[in-house]
Amino acid sequence: MGGQPTFFVLDDKMVAVFSVIKDNCKVKMECLFSKTGIEDYTLEYQGPNERKAELIELAILRAQNIFEHNILTV
Asked: Superkingdom of the source (predicted)?
């Protein structure tokens, strides 16, 4: 599914950079979190267009999980 996220501080917000890999498809996500959740994100997708929506959904779910388990606990 990908390795551990890398975290950066941007003003009063947190940025997590991580990848989601499934069946030779990869999404790299840079996600900006505020105190209330995901504020913005950028994606870099590698793979067939037919799988793009599925991988983006997995990346957003991973971002929500990172927020709940890493950002809220800081």
From this structure: Bacteria
Query: What pLDDT is recorded for position 72?
Result: 78
Q: Of 11, 37, 38, 50, which is closest to residue 29 (Cα–Cα)?
A: 38
| Residue 62: count of CB within 10 angstroms of its CB | 20
pTM: 0.88
Distance between CA atoms of residues 68 and 74, nearest Å: 10
Tokens of 58: 């997995």
**How far, in Å, are 5, 24, 45, 49 from residue 66 at the CA level?**
8, 23, 19, 26
Span 19-33, pLDDT tens digits: 999 999 999 999 999
